[in-house]
């Protein structure tokens, strides 16, 4: 660092440097490191009322491993994450490709496609809750009239998960499209010209030429969206399904919230936080390894 | 034939006819269809927000109603959304101003000073990326309860002010400032704060705007932490206000027209930020 940076390091006072860093370091100590370490500690205690705690060792972890509910939450979270990320990235890729192919209006299309990035998850939740409502929703009505299929996601667990995933995909599209259109627009025209002169079909060009070239961005998005989906979706589930019907949409984060703030089982919830941290740490590690391997293309 | 002319090399341009091809129609047609699908739920919500409760319960009625003004007034005043939106705006402003200030100071120290354990300090800040709210929410709530910050703006905003992302971005931006500029400032005997205010900040305007836009959207849209730390309804932010207005009907009829009006209101501020600051937001995201 000092090598590339040395020429810029014009100030020497260590005290000034410490003073400039103080606000950030104080804030991360109090509101990030302390609560994080405290989470680990709390996970070994049973806490009924604030202040009254009793050491239980690894009991919470043992209980989590045995718990049907927790295992169900893990499965639901993995399904939610895998489906949301896959569908969202495939759709974004196709849409971004279309924007790239459009010879005009691409700025107009881009705004029309990326705005859901600004949409609060809670808004996506309440809007879809009504539009695809089993009894009142206009989309549900149209769908049922068209295919005669009863889309009753208030009582059917699989459909409830599908409804939440639909909302998550809708809200998440904008973010991926921002990155993908940027990556595609940086590809040199010569790549496209060469593929076309070789007679590669349009979709072939997308999947055999462009996708390998923008793979660093795609890998980045896969990991980021996976982490996001693993932690996210809370507002959607809270507003649309409340974790139901019969726990079919009870993702890890919702389960943690309920245990902590509805059931006041703080120690048990803290243990769930620690496991969540473990999952994220693994995902981040995978990201670092995978991006290392794919970074050679250097497209973005 | 299926090749759009402008994709060919310049030598071939002009040889081919420049009429819109069938192919171009397919591309534009698909894009329009996608736009309609992505926009439809929000457009429908906006229409429903003008209907009366009776109209909104007629499933196939997707015509604008007559209660636009009444619905939005009811939501703003009777359902307290004016208060909730104000609270959201205060929270968002405090977080953005706080984040920018402390991150700009930290990045200045990291780039323009030489001190022991410099890299370690940077990594200590960066490591907090592994600690999103869910992995510290229980102790954070307990901490707020102990120091009496439940139901306060301090409790709402303090966990979000320190930012590894902002420090990282500003550090990168500062490192690309030409050495000549820095050298001139040093020869002129400019102190660090004046250097920050008069040189670095003007040179980083675009990135500051971009970071602010990203932070506005993220903070305005926050749901989980306000739900946990704010118990008093009057102090709540707009996102959780949606939970209240949607939950009102649990005893009887949900007034979906009012819920949709509230949804539209809560959507407008971040959407405006996206539209206004689009350029800066996109380039900031791209550099992250």
Description:
The complex is a heterodimer of chains A (300) and B (288). By secondary structure, chain A is mainly alpha-helical. Chain A has two domains: 10-55, no CATH class; 67-297, MetI-like fold (Orthogonal Bundle). Chain A contains 14 helices and two strands, in the order H-H-E-E-H-H-H-H-H-H-H-H-H-H-H-H. Chain A has a two-stranded antiparallel sheet. Chain A is globular. Residues 296-300 of chain A have low confidence and may be disordered. Chain B is an all-alpha fold and 288 residues long. Chain B has two domains: 5-74, no CATH class; 80-287, MetI-like fold (Orthogonal Bundle), CATH 1.10.3720. In chain B, 67% of the residues lie in helices and 0% in strands. Chain B is built from 15 helices and no strands. In chain B, helix 3 (68-78) packs across helix 14 and helix 13 (238-247) runs antiparallel to helix 14. The model of chain B is unreliable at 8-19 (pLDDT under 50). The interface between A and B is large, with 98 and 107 residues.
Task: Describe the secondary structure blueprint for this structure.
The complex is a heterodimer of chains A (300) and B (288).
Chain A: H1 2-5, H2 14-42, E1 45-47, E2 53-55, H3 59-66, H4 68-101, H5 106-114, H6 121-131, H7 138-147, H8 157-185, H9 189-197, H10 202-213, H11 215-231, H12 234-240, H13 252-262, H14 266-294
Antiparallel strand pairs in A: 1-2
Chain B: H1 22-48, H2 53-56, H3 68-78, H4 81-112, H5 118-126, H6 137-146, H7 153-157, H8 164-175, H9 179-187, H10 192-203, H11 205-220, H12 224-229, H13 238-247, H14 256-276, H15 278-287
Helix pairs in contact in B: 1-14, 3-14, 4-8, 4-11, 11-14, 11-15, 13-14
């Amino acid at each position: 660092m000092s090598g590339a940076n040395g020429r810029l390091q014009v100030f020497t006072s260590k005290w000034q440097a410490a003073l400039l860093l103080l606000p950030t370091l104080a804030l991360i100590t109090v509101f990030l490191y302390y609560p994080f370490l405290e989470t680990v500690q709390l996970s070994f205690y049973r806490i009924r009322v604030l202040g009254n705690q009793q050491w239980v060792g690894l009991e919470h972890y043992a209980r989590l491993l045995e718990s049907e509910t927790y295992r169900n939450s893990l499965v639901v979270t993995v399904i939610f994450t895998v489906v949301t990320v896959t569908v969202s990235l495939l759709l974004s890729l196709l849409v971004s490709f279309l924007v790239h192919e459009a010879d005009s209006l691409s700025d107009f299309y881009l705004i029309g496609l990326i705005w859901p990035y600004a949409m609060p998850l809670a808004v996506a939740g309440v809007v879809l809750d009504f539009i695809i409502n089993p009894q009142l929703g206009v989309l549900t009505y149209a769908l049922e009239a068209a295919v005669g299929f009863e889309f009753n996601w208030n009582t059917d667990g699989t459909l409830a998960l599908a409804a939440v995933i639909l909302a998550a995909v809708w809200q998440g599209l904008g973010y991926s499209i921002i990155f993908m259109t940027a990556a595609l627009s940086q590809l040199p025209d010569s790549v496209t010209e060469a593929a076309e002169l070789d007679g590669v079909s349009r979709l072939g060009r997308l999947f055999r030429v462009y996708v390998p070239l923008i793979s660093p961005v795609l890998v980045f998005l896969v990991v980021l969206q996976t982490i996001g989906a693993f932690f996210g979706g809370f507002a959607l589930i809270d507003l649309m399904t409340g974790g139901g019907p019969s726990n079919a949409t009870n993702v890890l984060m919702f389960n943690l919230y309920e245990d902590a703030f509805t059931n006041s089982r703080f120690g048990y919830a803290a243990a769930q936080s620690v496991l969540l941290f473990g999952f994220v740490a693994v995902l981040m590690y995978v990201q670092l390894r995978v991006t290392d391997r794919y970074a050679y293309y250097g497209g973005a | 034939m299926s090749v759009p002319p402008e994709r060919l090399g310049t030598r071939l341009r002009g040889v081919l006819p420049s009429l819109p091809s069938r192919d171009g129609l397919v591309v534009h047609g698909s894009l329009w269809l996608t736009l309609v699908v992505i926009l439809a739920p929000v457009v429908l919500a906006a229409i429903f927000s003008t209907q009366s409760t009776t109209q909104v319960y007629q499933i196939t009625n997707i015509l604008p109603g007559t209660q636009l003004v009444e619905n939005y007034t009811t939501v703003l005043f009777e359902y307290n959304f004016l208060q909730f939106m104000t609270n959201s705006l205060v929270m968002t402003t405090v977080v953005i101003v706080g984040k920018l200030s402390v991150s700009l100071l930290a990045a200045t120290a990291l780039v323009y000073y030489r001190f022991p354990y410099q890299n370690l300090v940077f990594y200590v800040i960066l490591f907090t990326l592994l600690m999103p709210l869910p992995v510290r929410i229980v102790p954070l709530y307990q901490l707020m309860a102990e120091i009496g910050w439940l139901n306060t703006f301090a409790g709402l905003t303090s966990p979000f002010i320190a930012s590894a992302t902002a420090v990282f971005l500003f550090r990168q931006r500062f490192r690309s400032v030409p050495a000549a500029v820095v050298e001139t400032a040093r020869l002129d005997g400019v102190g660090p704060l004046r250097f920050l205010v008069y040189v670095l900040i003007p040179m980083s305007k675009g990135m500051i705007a971009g970071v602010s836009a990203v932070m506005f959207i993220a903070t305005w849209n926050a749901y989980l932490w306000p739900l946990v730390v704010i118990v008093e309804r009057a102090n709540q932010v707009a996102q959780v206000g949606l939970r209240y207005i949607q939950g009102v009907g649990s005893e009887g009829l949900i007034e979906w027209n009012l819920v949709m009006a509230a949804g539209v209101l809560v959507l407008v501020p971040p959407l405006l930020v996206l539209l206004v600051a689009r350029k800066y937001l996109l380039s900031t995201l791209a550099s992250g």
